[in-house]
Amino acid sequence: MSAIEQQNSVKLVCKTRVSIELSQVKFAAKLGVSLQSVNRWENGRTKPLAVALKQIEELLQPMGNHGKDLLVKYFGKLRNRDL
Description:
Blueprint lengths: L5 H14 L4 H8 L3 H8 L7 H11 L3 H12 L8
Helix pairs in contact: 1-5, 2-3
């Protein structure tokens, strides 16, 4: 997984969370992080750690074309099983 720039991580977190229709609280719980972490990510104060980005990437996998579009845009490529 390539490094994701701060600005892109904000968009990635927001778009993923909105796409799966979760509040910040529920999204945080799904990732096993605090609400404050998700809030900081979405406000651009911090970036998700690699482990959280991996979990976000895995949430995008079953989302069909929209998930694939986000994977390509923010992670740079699809995994072989998604082609």
